[in-house]
């Protein structure tokens, strides 16, 4: 069978497959990633996690969303935060409004917890980005962000951040320094080795705890279809 058109692939990648098809091989890969992350925190609680990539289009938002889903399916009270304040897309994935979000909270124009939106998935809430600000890095490095994190820790078992690509701007490094763990997403056959190495170096320079790398969009052929899955 012919390869699926690019548009169909993009549509499939945006799906919350861990929720829509939990018995699929791809959903199982997300659960494997979840288990590997948890093994990294045997002696200390995992409270916050950022997901980033070297560049756009590598699947970081899909990875962040599905990881949040599988943690919620485990019974953990989970919040997914769209901290990509430059090109936010989490609200599209969950079909939520984005009138109010993280930027409103950080600028003091909205309260934190009421701005978090419930989803159709048990134990999972989402804090969308809100309006795109002129100073994303300054907001993420502000005292308000640190206070926001502390308040979220009191309410949620795990906070997952979707951040901009690490090579494009400093936002991911700023949050990685504040959070418990970092996952780097790279694209099989698409990400240059030099870019992946540079991203790793930048995260380590920010004192990030790099938990591992998710290799995304690796092609498997099964009955003529191409499957896109992730593993750690």
UniProtKB/TrEMBL annotation:
Coiled-coil region(s): none
MF-aspect GO terms: ATP binding; identical protein binding; non-membrane spanning protein tyrosine kinase activity
Segments forming domain AAA: 51-177
EC number of the protein: 2.7.10.2
Top-rank lineage group of the source organism: Bacteria
Name of the top EC class for this enzyme: transferase
Catalyzed chemical reaction(s): L-tyrosyl-[protein] + ATP = O-phospho-L-tyrosyl-[protein] + ADP + H(+)
GO cellular component, one term: plasma membrane
Keyword line: ATP-binding, Kinase, Nucleotide-binding, Transferase, Tyrosine-protein kinase
PANTHER family in alphabetical order: FERRIC ENTEROBACTIN TRANSPORT PROTEIN FEPE, TYROSINE-PROTEIN KINASE
Family per similarity comment: Belongs to the CpsD/CapB family.
Protein name per Swiss-Prot or TrEMBL: non-specific protein-tyrosine kinase
Protein's organism: Geobacillus stearothermophilus
């Amino acid at each position: 069978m012919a390869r699926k058109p690019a548009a169909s692939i993009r549509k499939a990648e945006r799906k919350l497959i861990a929720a829509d098809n939990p018995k699929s091989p791809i959903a199982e890969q997300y659960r494997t990633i979840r288990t590997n992350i948890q093994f990294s925190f045997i002696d200390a609680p995992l409270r916050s996690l950022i997901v980033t990539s070297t560049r756009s289009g590598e699947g970081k938002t899909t990875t962040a969303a599905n990881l949040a889903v599988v943690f919620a399916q485990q019974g953990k009270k989970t919040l997914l935060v769209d901290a990509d304040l430059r090109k936010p897309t989490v609200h599209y994935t969950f079909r939520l409004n984005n009138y109010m979000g993280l930027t409103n909270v950080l600028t003091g124009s909205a309260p934190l917890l009421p701005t978090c939106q419930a989803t159709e998935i048990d134990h999972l809430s989402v804090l969308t980005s809100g309006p795109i600000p002129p100073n994303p890095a300054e907001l993420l490095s502000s005292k308000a962000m640190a206070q926001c994190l502390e308040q979220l820790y009191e309410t949620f078992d795990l906070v997952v951040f979707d951040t901009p690509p690490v090579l494009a701007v400093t936002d991911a490094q700023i949050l990685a320094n504040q959070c418990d763990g970092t996952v780097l997403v790279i694209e099989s056959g698409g990400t240059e080795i030099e870019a992946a190495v540079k991203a790793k170096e930048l995260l380590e320079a920010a004192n990030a705890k790099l938990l591992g790398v998710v290799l995304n969009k690796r092609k498997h052929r099964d009955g003529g279809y191409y499957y896109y899955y992730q593993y750690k």
